[in-house]
Amino acid sequence: MDRKFHTWGALRTLLLVASLLLVPFLVHAGGDKVHEVGIKKFKYTPPEITIKAGETVRWINNEKRQYHSVWFEESGEEEPAEFFPEEIYERTFVKPGTFRYRCGPHEEMTGIIHVK
């Protein structure tokens, strides 16, 4: 009897862990496309992209030691928290327009998102 309980408990734990690992993939499973912008050597790459309304942009900090931010300053928003190497920042764009952004700590780093 105890053995079956331990097996069921292990299976339940395994299912819980597997479901938690799948959550990030299910968030975008509705067909929303995710575009990636890398950050390395104090540059956004690509610096300018065009996407459709409803799509998401994911910035990935590929630096070895430097933190950055993605700040849409022209929109009047406060600067978001910086993110560190191997961390990401995501934003979904729901309205068409041109959205300029920059890195708060490094003003020379700029990019543009065109949403159609």
Q: Tally of extended strands? A: 7
CATH architecture of the largest domain: Sandwich
Using the coordinates above, name the CATH class of the largest domain.
Mainly Beta
Shape: globular
Which radius of gyration do the C-alpha atoms yield?
A: 19 Å
State the end-to-end CA separation: 61 Å
Portion in strands: 25-35%
String of helices and strands: HEEEEEEE
Structural class: alpha/beta
Give the helix proportion (percent range): 10-25%
- Treating each run of at least 4 consecutive H or I residues as one helix, how many helices? 1
CATH homologous superfamily designation of the largest domain: Cupredoxins -  blue copper proteins
Give the number of domains: 2
Question: Major sheet, described briefly?
Answer: 4 strands, mixed
**Biggest sheet, spatial arrangement of strands:** 2-1-4-5
The stretches of 5 or more residues where confidence is low (pLDDT under 50) are 1-6, 25-31
Q: Roughly what is the average pLDDT, rounded to an integer?
A: 83
CATH domain fold name of the largest domain? Immunoglobulin-like
